[in-house]
Records
---
Amino acid sequence: MNLSRRQILASAAATAPLIVAGRAFAAPAARSRLLVVFLRGAYDAANIIAPTGSDFYHEARPTIGLGRPDALNPNAPLALDADWSLHPALKDSIYPLWQKRQIAFVPFAGTDDLSRSHFETQDTIELGQPIGGHRDYGSGFMARLVGTLGQGAPIAFTDQLPLCFRGGPSIPNVGLGAVGSKPTIDARDAGLIQSMYRGDHIGKVDMGSSVEEGFQVRATVFRTIDDEMKQAGRGAVSTKGFELSARRIGRLMRDQFNVAFVDVGSWDTHVNQGGGQGYLANRIGELGRGLAGYADEIGPAAWANTTVVVISEFGRTFHENGDKGTDHGHGSVYWVMGGNVRGGRMVGPQIKLSSATLNQGRDLPVLTDYRALLGGIVSRQFGIGSKRLNTVFPSALPVDLGLI
């Protein structure tokens, strides 16, 4: 179901309970809060929390890889420890949280789904069910979490109720309004340029026809890439849209809601993703500013009881491709942040990176299962015992990484 604009504004300002479909959602007060941020499209984790201490990383990414940390270079990545560095686009947003020990990174994280399909692996994560068995698309893991808690104030910041919230109690969803992209040259400008060359020839080449054909090809390519990006993102808000809306989410969760989900798209970087600067750097910069704004807006008291988990369906190939991008991979790096998080560290099992240790010779392997990770977090966050936790993540043993 959707909330009207009037309801959104009212809920952001009011402290009274919000009524949705006849159900009262009380303000969470001192209760724990959980926000799951899903980066749809598979973000290239290895260029955001990069293993810059590895010579193999620099060999595998000669064009798009980040350089080594350099305290004298403001555009260099920021050393997290001897092995890992943070993308410089996150210097003013996420790195301060690292210095405050309010964010941790979990490398080699993900699912045992090896399909490399955006849709199938997104479904795998949102359902939270064992791989290989019958999939119940009417039962998402966050819906089961809310049902296990018995009471709470859940919300999805999405245009449609996401799969992870299906099958539980009546849950509101609020679309943030994706900020769409468009070609840099619109149809009117393209027509003007074509008219400039109409009738001109270079040898036997009709320049007017060539320019017209070029614009047609360009438009077709743009639509193809744009459609693929949107399909991979499944209608998720853009990073710019998230940056603009994250403070609204913070206000809503401070005053009204305590279990929330938001998805952010535009992470499918097959072509020209860039390194320290470029497409991916711009997207991750917007995400970082959004998350920092959320932490600021929710306020110190609520932030002290808040956990934010940033996940993606899979990582990307460790080696860059011939188009200076990366293709669908496997293992990723998850983020866990909040005022109650024991951060400032890389968490979970790790291995030395080499051709022999990559999954199928191409991807980061998965050493921390996402269900085990999330299970350990919500168990600590909400005090859920093993029996009830098995309802949320059936057949998955939680792992306590000491994050909370």
---
Amino acid sequence: MSIQEDRESSGFVLSQRDWGYLGSFRAMASPCELLIATRDEKMASSMMKLASGEAARIELKFSRFIEGNLLWRLNHTGGKASGIDGETANLLQFARQCYQFSDGRFDISAGPLMALWRFDGGEVPAAGAIERVMALVDFSRVNFNEHQLQLPAGMSLDFGGIAKEYAVDRVAYLLAEQWPETSVLVNFGGDIACPVAKGEDSPPWQVGIENPQRLDSAAALLEIRQGALATSGDTRRFIERDGQRFGHIIDPQTGYPVVKAPRSVTVLAPNCVTAGMLATMAMLEGEHAEAFLRQQEVAFKCFR
């Protein structure tokens, strides 16, 4: 198969730059990019094929919007126990750590709430409807081990808060494992990982942080040679009704979007799932977001 045929079959675009190759595709409702520090087109194409395939696999498995997939089946067991694989068990364990660390505010059992709050130009859900589904939101009631999961009837999980960051880390790890000498910056919708350091003899990767007041323009520019970052915010998904803005970060303890939160939070961390967890938790802290992040002793940028 030629490189061009490989691109077409895998659904990605690859273009040459002064510093190497830029590859792009779409997955998980986000633009996805790889910045690859190589002159080898065949290598860059192989990297893109791996990245787009792994992103598609994770989306197909864990998206709540794909009827009949693994997550859909788990959410429709009617209270019965169901078998799970090691990957799912590991994600659930991470979700449990997030739940415990956030005192219950980072809760992937908020699927019923997310189904109510549709940020597509719809209406604000009725208070009664929110109150009814709140009875189905509580990760402490989720029972699982390495091989089995049991959800209370009516409860549903939503991996949206961790799946994209997990996909970034997985792709970055697989690339680093197969091409350990080549620096690649993996960027899925602003969630980023770069496990192989960019050499000191070349410029660092540059990452723009979007300006919440002027979308599609950068308010700040970060330089990164190695590490990860993630951004959480409500700049693109929100509802405005009667002069009130409702962002898409839902507080599962109230059933409503968090109040007095920054417009966006970007966190730098060793891996993307950690950065994403801290960015989302900071949003859930509302007016105390900056204080929370300072306590974690991580580099961050908040826009209000």
